Prior knowledge:
By secondary structure, this protein is α/β, with parallel strands linked by helices.
Amino acid sequence: MLDVIIISYNGRKLTEECIKSLDNLSTKNINFKITIVDNNSNDDTVEFIRNNYNNINIIANKKNLGYAAAVNIGMKNTSSDFAIITNNDVVFTPDSIEKMLNFLKENHNAAVVAPQQLYPDGKWQRSYGDFVGIKSGLKYLFLVTLFQNHYFRKFYKVGKRKRPKRVEYADGAVLCIKREIFNKVNGFDEDYFFYSEEMDFCYRVKLASYSVWHLPTSIVYHHRGGSDLAMRFTEKKQEMLIASKILFCDKHLSNFEKKLYVLLEKLHHKFMLLSYKIICKLKNTEKTTSKLNYYQLMHRIWIRK
């Protein structure tokens, strides 16, 4: 038995698309139950689900409690040994869940496994990352992460990479989790309202001597931002993202490590801002202007930290 827990906040049509993809799973011998935890959507998500899906359990929060709290509520109201935690803007391919579930069953030390996320047009999407800290700060400053992402976006082909990869943390849009270990590390930390909650969870999973994996043969399509379509690139969104990283530092790093990490982020964004100012003078396109605006915003936020 498997529980699929969908976290939703608006985006009813995307939620419906997610449910339909679950109905189309190729493996019928996996018994699963869908639970939707809705964070007080102001569209008709809750009413639509109740009127059209009698077999889905929906938990309607009276206010937006944040992603971490919604996950914990979903886990407390389900009981299977394995659970899929997913955003509502994800479309599962027919064998994606079977592959993740089999991987966890076959690997005793594995606590979490995540699929390869693609954008709806099939382009590569980052699905895992490094913990916030000095290492990740240095990789940003020296453009290692930037070039890695560019390489994967440019040369990614479905099926090219087949070997599972042990990672520091997996992106929280889709996670397949062993419930026993979820409970052992006390679930998600509800101090995180939105962003970095999965990083914190995976960090504590690794502290408990379990492993987190990325499974490239399991494919899902992720709209990214579907639970709040109006908030894809705003100052508020970036403020929340950076605040969550600082919170992670406060919880898990020394004061020195935190200060050095913040300094590295400031230097990185200052460098990128200056670079795009030069690039825009040489090649002023919509794309370069958008990048310049992004780094102006990010530099402005980081400099306040």
